[in-house]
Amino acid sequence: MTARTETATVPAAGAVLWRREGDQLQVALVHRPKYDDWSWAKGKLDPGESWVEAAAREVLEETGFRPRLGVPLPRSVYSMQRGQLKEIRYWAAEVLSGSGDLENEIDEVAWLTPAQAQVRLSYVRDAQQLQAVVDADRAGVLETWPLVVVRHGESVGRSKWPRPDPLRPLDRSGREQAKALVPILAAYGIERIITSPSVRCFTTVQPYAAAAGITLRTKSGLSEETFEERPEKAARNIERLLERGEPSALCTHRPVLPTVLLRLRGLSDPGCPGHEVLTEAIDGGMAKGEALVCQVAGLGAAARVMSVERHTPA
Known about the structure:
Number of helices: 9
Low-confidence stretches: none
Number of domains: 2
Domain Nudix hydrolase: 8-134
Radius of gyration: 20 Å
Distance between the termini: 5 Å
Shape: globular
Enzyme class: hydrolase
Mean pLDDT: 94
Protein name: 8-oxo-dGTP diphosphatase
Pfam families: His_Phos_1 (PF00300), NUDIX (PF00293)
CATH topology of the largest domain: Rossmann fold
CATH class of the largest domain: Alpha Beta
Organism: Flexivirga oryzae
Structural class: alpha/beta
Number of strands: 13
Strand content: 25-35%
Largest sheet: 7 strands, mixed
CATH superfamily of the largest domain: Phosphoglycerate mutase-like
């Protein structure tokens, strides 16, 4: 997955945890006694770590809560004492699980209303993320669920495989791509996975399913062979996921992807960044092992794609 590169900019990631107490929106701030400051849960990327993986890890370490990442929030870029730039990428996030027990350098987590948080924040720059959360909440699109489209990983070439094509397995690179998908799908709290029954698709998402304790569901409509005969079945699988509204992922093949992505693009507003990202994926294709994450607000006919992120193999 897309990982940080060594540059003069120091990369970090975090999230604005949010919840509701009755009808009242609350966000979580963390206090660092070393600096006596209040800010969002965040931290630097480890070597080779992706932005979303770091965000989920840092939130868990600093708050004791495992998050499900939602829509991306504005980034912060600022100068550090030694002259380096620091870039922090943020997401809105809900609590999936966790005890809230504190470790590391945080001694307090405070759940506050946006007005209270505005006063408590130690840094003016952190107000950008707070305002974005408030704006999304007012628009009724803060609460989203992820729908992840995955193209299977690198596989043994057709010319080198003497058996039926659906049995063609991942190669070494594909198996590594499948492992790299695990923390990405975990950061978005994926609970349901449907996949083409072809071995190269099934085994791309199998490592995450095993780690999360999820039963993979094979759908013939996502296979190349069925798609060639009955392309409408691929669209039907998307419609069912939209109706269910569960954090979901589907894994399929290059010929099937345009049909899936066109349906999702139809749920996004023209001119918005997500619409453009989906258009790029439709026109240019997805890389093998790539995951495209759509944050969806609403269900069924009312579903709307609010953001789209691409996680390409490293």
